[in-house]
Amino acid sequence: MQGPAAHAGTASSSEATEDARAGLRAPADGVPEKPGARGQRLSIVWRNVVLMSLLHLAAAYSLLLIPKAQPLTLLWAYFCFLLTALGVTAGAHRLWSHRSYKAKLPLRIFLATANSMAFQNDIFEWARDHRAHHKYSETDADPHNARRGFFFSHIGWLLVRKHPDVIEKGKKLDVSDLLADPVVRFQRKYYKTSVVLMCFVLPTLVPWYIWGESLWNSYFLASILRYTISLNGTWLVNSAAHMYGNRPYDKHISPRQNPLVALGAIGEGFHNYHHTFPFDYSASEFGLNFNPTTWFIDAMCLLGLATDRKQATKTMIEARKAKTGDGSA
């Protein structure tokens, strides 16, 4: 069984090589390359515009149903939100994108199932795009380049065709480790079916079948509202956490420390730290504080379902603060 997280240590040289191969290392000088093709005309995907507009209108309507719903239905919706979030944070992000810890087969199956509930593209696409985001952060090869504004980095990037640089440089990333995982391949093969079942059918049927909630309330609260909130929680990491907050670890990059985003994204708002030390399984130097995802990973380690947590040492963190930090706490 893996020892305490504090003893997990830093990434070894071989692990650092793996991180570089996966496109997780920042430029040597810490300064993002200048974006190109700034005048490129956006090609709007109107289908996505319509679908996202309808989804958010339905979520707004869902708020009116909250007083009419049974308390158990609201608790179930929140439970589904937590599962959804873990499928992204502990799964697609910290495990498959950054390989910051190792997970045994039962845990990988659970996280892939929760990830299908999240409905944010399959694990392979999510991890590939996230690796591009780190390697080419805030350039035109970054899928949700924050230099193109809050709206673009939050949701706009999903409403337009990808910049050619995203496609071109994304193809050069080594994603062989993702394709080597049978869980990732299975989820990708049956993604549409798994999304229908996990994101919409299961959340709707449980309250109706077990405690007699109406299908209408169940669908709009446990599926539509929960899904919309979880989407925006993830998107705030791309937008708000790249624009608002301090930069105690590296003032030369845009990602910020944003505790409010950390609350909404169950631990993913300490973004200046994460972009400085992307291999750290906790995505923060504060351990369990504001970080339910870290609680979950630590619990899985205690159960023997996760191992090999990577973590930056205190010495490494303090040295980086002194060298490139903005002097804030």
From TrEMBL:
Domain Fatty acid desaturase: residue ranges: 75-278
Transmembrane annotation, as ranges: 44-64, 76-96, 195-212, 218-237
Span list, region Disordered: 1-37
Topology of this chain in the membrane: Multi-pass membrane protein
InterPro entries, per database record: Acyl-CoA_DS, FA_desaturase_dom, FADS-1_CS
Family matches, as Pfam families: FA_desaturase
One term under GO cellular component: endoplasmic reticulum membrane
Needed co-factor(s): Fe(2+)
Superkingdom, natural source: Eukaryota
Location(s), subcellular: Membrane
Keywords noted in UniProt: Fatty acid biosynthesis, Fatty acid metabolism, Iron, Lipid biosynthesis, Lipid metabolism, Membrane, Metal-binding, Oxidoreductase, Transmembrane, Transmembrane helix
GO terms classed as biological process: unsaturated fatty acid biosynthetic process
GO molecular function: iron ion binding; stearoyl-CoA 9-desaturase activity
Family matches, as PROSITE patterns: FATTY_ACID_DESATUR_1
Domain statement: The histidine box domains are involved in binding the catalytic metal ions.
Family membership: Belongs to the fatty acid desaturase type 1 family.
Name the UniProt record assigns to this protein: Fatty acid desaturase domain-containing protein
Organism: Jaculus jaculus
